[in-house]
Design brief:
Phosphate acyltransferase, alpha/beta
Amino acid sequence: MKIAVDAMGGDLAPQAIVEGVIQASSELPSEARIVLIGRESVIWDLFNQHNFTPTNVDVVHAEDVIEMGEHPTKALSQKPNSSIGVGFKLLKEKEVDIFCSAGNTGAMHVGALFSIKAIEGILRPAIAGFVPQVDGGYSIMLDIGANADCKPEVLAQFGEIGSIFAQYTFQIERPRVALMNIGEEEQKGSLTSQATYPLLKQNKRINFIGNIEGKDLFTNKADVIVTDGFTGNILFKLGESLYEISKKRGFQDDFIDQTNYESIGGSSIIGVNGNVMIAHGVSSPLAIRNMIGWAYKQVKSKAYLHILQALS
């Protein structure tokens, strides 16, 4: 198994990325290798600074960097030799099993659509975020930012592909799928929510349990939380704020610790022909280390192949 990581993407790159890779390399199972993509001389300088001799890390040179503020489509076409461009080339050619980056989120999403492409039948690929639950487990919420506006049929499909992803990632036989709304009753919510509810309810391939509200986000009511990318992004970032607030106020709690973005380190793009993980722009070494751990689990789950099979 080869886990590709963009060394140059992120506000704290390349130092934080390389440090995270060094930490992860000592924990990875023997069947896995990390492929670090970026400016080779810079990466090796950092290896030497940490007295690190890579035994399960390969370095692939990429001269260019897509900066955080660049236009995604333009940057990818103008910088094919960027770390993100090279990463997607390796993924498309099946030289690596997953590509992870803390770089330009738009470039990661567009890069996935242009290279490995959406699975046939997928209306809109989504970014799925891992939401910690008070019982210690996780739910997934999709979308958390790729699609700010969604039609009912897109949200209904999120329920189905999210269910398959949760089934194989979390080993849950019948994941509970819920629609995020402003009330539990079927007729509640926006016109889009009201039109989405019956589509989810009629789908016999999923275990739809109805609407949930914002207060249910962390309380283990659902394994899959369906929402548009606008609402999902706001909820997800609100959740992430809990850790920083509690730290500033001087108290520690095991559940609150799980809301720290570093605890998972990345979010998956679901609905494309391959494995892609997007990390937080401010990713620390710990976040990168944890993202690589989850990347290993994602490859092992073969979730995207199960989604492909379900839609074929």
